[in-house]
Amino acid sequence: MSVLSVLRITLAKDLRMEWRSKDAINSMLFFALLVVVIFSFSFDLTADESRQIAGGLIWVALLFAAVVALNQTWARELRNQVLDAYRVSPAPAESLFLAKTIGNFLFVAILELLMTPLFIVFYNLRSIGPVYQLILASVLGNWALVVNGTFFGAMSIRTRSREVLLPLILFPISIPALLAMVGATTSTLTGEGSAHLSLVFLAVYDVVFTLLGLFLFETVLQAE
Amino acid sequence: MKSKFAIFALLTFVLLSWGLYQALVGAPTEATMGQVQRIFYYHVPNAWVMELCFPLNFLASIIYLVNRKAAIDAFAVATAEVGVVFCTVVLLTGPIWARPVWGIWWTWDARLTSTLVLWLIYVGYLMLRKLSTGGPNPVLAASFAIFGCIDAVFVFMAIRWFRTQHPKPVFAGGADSGIDPRMMHAFLINLLAFTCYGALLVWIRYSLERTRQKVDEAHAMKSLLHQEARSSR
Question: How many structural domains compose chain B?
Fold first, then answer.
């Protein structure tokens, strides 16, 4: 089977499972909502202050929430030894990795769409810079989180304390991407400085880590 | 092998003692910072060893993924662990110096932040090794090390570009502004001494890991033979 057809079938299967159970979306959404509420209780902010820190808050909430979905990606393949079946099947590992990444990307994108209005309401936000930069930052930042998260999820599923390990290895690697996402979002929201450099940085980060993930995924999947 | 190790250990001990003497007595007291500047003879060589260890770990990880030799993996563990230890020393001795000189324990300066993130990445690496099911999984660890090392490049760039608005403490009469030859002497001795010390630790950790691998192998072999004996009966 070709790379694309395996990708399409795996992705369709994941989306169908998610559509029927809504496990990942529901838990992510509720978790992100809790983070937003707890943040706004922890800080008492004016409109100016919230514009300064909202970029950081949004991404921290999304990062924490994404881990919930990322942990479930591979866990659902453990039932009935599906992961072992992937391992012995001749289907290209790269398409499995890409399908999982795209699936997670869509879940986090839905989360972003639902969370943005909440953020605008709770933190009285209004963007001073151009809005297309925010959209670009959320797409590129989303991909940066899920591409590494999907890869490391396949690693942490092989360890004793799966759910705990994923953030422990994902967060340090995501720090540079997080800096760029927050930089782009904050400079767009406040209208100070240019988001251009951050967006280019994120794009390069995405390309490099996608290629690295594609290159090493087969090795990780087959690791004994 | 054993005598070579003993000679090297003795040499390291002599160098470290001499280095300590030079740092505490031989080198003159720095004019503006005073005695606290002497921590540099400890801090900088430690940072140097750390900067040697992490690239070696990266190289060993790549080589391991290509040839899958257990010895290479043992070397990767040794360099990662020693690197983290030396990195911890750097992160601890830095603030001890910074408090009296800068007036603060910590600042989110580019170099400090990148060292901290590097430490976090490699602690993550050690966690991954520690928590793998069915014994350590070298393939996962090696893949993560490659991610970590490439990420380190992004960390350095990101911190330089996106965190520059933070005030940087000014070095008042630091090591750059004309150094006394006796200070240079003490510094170079310590650099050599700590490089030897780091190599010695990697050596010890490496042979320990090799022994552990061989014991595991022997255990696996033994249980395999048992199974075979039982099935043939």
Answer: 1
Q: Tell me the average pLDDT of chain A.
A: 87
Amino acid at A148: N
At residue B164, the pLDDT reads: 54
Question: Average pLDDT in the A4-20 region?
Answer: 89
B71 belongs to a structural domain: yes
Domain range for B41: 22-165+178-232
The number of domains in chain A is 1
List pLDDT tens digits, range A161-188. Answer: 778 889 999 999 999 999 899 888 888 8
The reply to whether B12 falls in a domain is no
- Chain B closest CA to A179's CA: distance in Å? 7
Residue A187, domain extent: 3-222
What average pLDDT does this structure show over B6-31?
A: 86
Per CB distance under 8 Å, which residues of A are interface residues toward B?
Answer: 148, 151-152, 155-156, 158-161, 165, 168-169, 171-173, 175-177, 179-180, 183, 197-198, 201, 205, 208-209, 212, 216, 219-220, 222-224
Convert the pLDDT of each residue in B144-189 to its tens digit. Answer: 999 999 998 888 888 877 765 444 444 444 445 556 777 888 888 8
Q: What is the pLDDT of residue B171?
A: 44
How would residue B81 be classed by pLDDT, with cut points 50, 70 and 90? Answer: very high
Q: Report yes or no on B102 lying in a domain.
A: yes
- The answer to whether A144 and A206 have CB atoms below 8 angstroms apart is yes
B222 domain-assigned: yes
Q: How many helices (H) does chain A have, and how many strands (E)?
A: 8, 0
pLDDT of residue B135: 62
Nearest-angstrom CA–CA distance, A170 and B57: 19
DSSP label at A81?
Answer: G
CB contact under 8 A, B127 and A212: no
SS (H, E, C) chain B: CHHHHHHHHHHHHHHHHHHHHHHHHHCCCECCCEHHHHHHHHHHHHHHHHHHHHHHHHHHHHHHHHHCCHHHHHHHHHHHHHHHHHHHHHHHHHHHHHHHHHCCCCCCCHHHHHHHHHHHHHHHHHHHHHHECCCCCHHHHHHHHHHHHHHHHHHHHHHHHHCCCCCCCCCCCCCCCCCCHHHHHHHHHHHHHHHHHHHHHHHHHHHHHHHHHHHHHHHHHHHHHHHHHHHHC
Decide: B82 and B198 in contact? Cβ < 8 Å: yes
- Residue A204: closest CA among A143, A135, A146: A143
